[in-house]
Amino acid sequence: MILSVVNHKGGTGKTTTTVNLGSGLAAAGKRVLLIDFDPQGSLSYSLGLADQSLTIADVLTGDCTMQEVMQQREGMDVLAANSTLADVELAMAKSEEHLSHLKNILVTLSGYEYVLIDCPPTLSLLTLNALAGSDFVIIPMQMDVLALRGLDSMLDILKKINLINKHIEVLGVLPVMVEPRKNIYQEILRHIQTHYDVRIFENVIRSSVKAAEAPSFGKSVVAHAPLSTTAMDYKKLVSEMLQIEETAYRNRHPINL
Ligand SMILES: Nc1ncnc2c1ncn2[C@@H]1O[C@H](COP(=O)(O)OP(=O)(O)OP(=O)(O)O)[C@@H](O)[C@H]1O
Ligand SMILES: [Mg+2]
């Protein structure tokens, strides 16, 4: 499955979720590709790939093959990004098929069970390209009032994306950097449960100092501090994801007893 981790609000745990979900799925034996699709290059930095000269931008321009750009980290294949992706985005805007550039690359992939795309915190052409090529989205969000407003506009945008990608679905909203004892968390959780027709992952991600420090070690928190609360939460999220996938598969192929 091709899955975009998206929220046009900044600093909502998109990159952290992409890295840790990917690393956890790879540890569970899944073949995983991570794509850094943000010119900030935070995912690349978080996995010690900040100095890569060849990036996804070179694949998009046709100057390199994916194999030439691909790096391996924590059992995953990774396509890095840096600020050159912003230049490529400008060039994309002038082209005719401006929403299909990434999709045209994704359709050539084979052998991956999970492709995770880390989107930038904007509703830019890059994000629209990621959504045009994805089967599912995960929306990581901090549980505050402003984030709720962001969720409204995010879901509106996804409805519009249906015009260019009919089968895209929200896999779920993922509460991140959660401090479970705070009242506001419980209130916002209840509000989403009652007012939105969207899955909220059961395994939410709590805050920890280890999660914040892991990127500077070039590792996921799952690899850097496997016993931290955040790492444990991401591992449980991986199990939940696998369960969701299994149920969906069973429903598509009912067992006749
Ligand atoms: N569970 C957590 N506990 C503590 N800190 C966290 C946690 N998740 C993320 N962070 C920290 O919060 C900051 C923002 O996280 P992250 O970079 O994943 O968000 P983002 O949505 O990708 O940001 P951007 O919108 O800039 O791309 C980072 O410094 C990260 O290390
Ligand atoms: Mg990010």
Task: Give an account of the 3D structure.
The structure is a single chain. The protein has 257 residues and is of the alpha/beta class. Helix content is 45%, strand content 14%. It has a single domain, classed as P-loop containing nucleotide triphosphate hydrolases (Rossmann fold), CATH 3.40.50. It contains twelve helices and seven strands. A seven-stranded mixed β-sheet has the order 3-4-2-5-1-6-7, sandwiched between helices. Helix 1 packs across helix 12. The chain starts with a strand and ends in a 5-residue tail after the last helix. The mean pLDDT is 93. The structure holds adenosine-5'-triphosphate and magnesium ion. The site of adenosine-5'-triphosphate has 20 residues, from helix 1 and helix 10.
